[in-house]
Design goal:
two-stranded antiparallel sheet; two-stranded parallel sheet; mainly alpha; Arc Repressor Mutant, subunit A; DNA-binding
DNA sequence: AGAGCACTGATCC
DNA sequence: GGATCAGTGCTCT
């Protein structure tokens, strides 16, 4: 069961074009909230994985943060590879040209 | 009801 | 410059 909050997160995430990334902060900002952690929690639960590219969400400093358990096994590497294919280059634990790939939501509040 | 979390910003050292 | 504290809202146990 997805809470409206989670649903909103997914929605915003889907609005992010491929080859682009976003940050928890932006998401929270777009939702007019400050619960970055809550978002992370929802992601960790991974409600609808294929529809919710959590890997497309990164920390504000451009690092992946701790996706699938911090160390991110080969699985995430694979995802990163896919991401790379899409246009999001991830170097090690960081997004290349993060500030350039960062997608900012259009929030009337800002 | 309580603890935890995939964060971030500010403060402390 | 790095480490720790505090704030925040939601999910899980």
């Amino acid at each position: 069961m997805l809470s409206p909050f989670a649903k909103q997160v997914h929605k915003l995430l889907r609005t992010v074009p491929k080859g682009r990334v976003t940050t928890y902060k932006e998401l929270a900002n777009a939702m007019d909230t400050k619960a970055f952690r809550a978002i992370g929690q929802v992601m960790r639960s991974n409600p609808n994985a294929p529809n919710t590219p959590c890997h497309r969400v990164v920390s504000a400093n451009g690092t992946l943060g701790g996706f699938m358990g911090e160390k991110s096994g080969p699985k995430v590497l694979k995802k990163i590879r896919l991401l790379k294919k899409e246009g999001t280059l991830v170097h090690g634990n960081r997004v290349v040209d993060f500030n350039r790939k960062l997608y900012k939501f259009q929030n009337p509040n800002r």
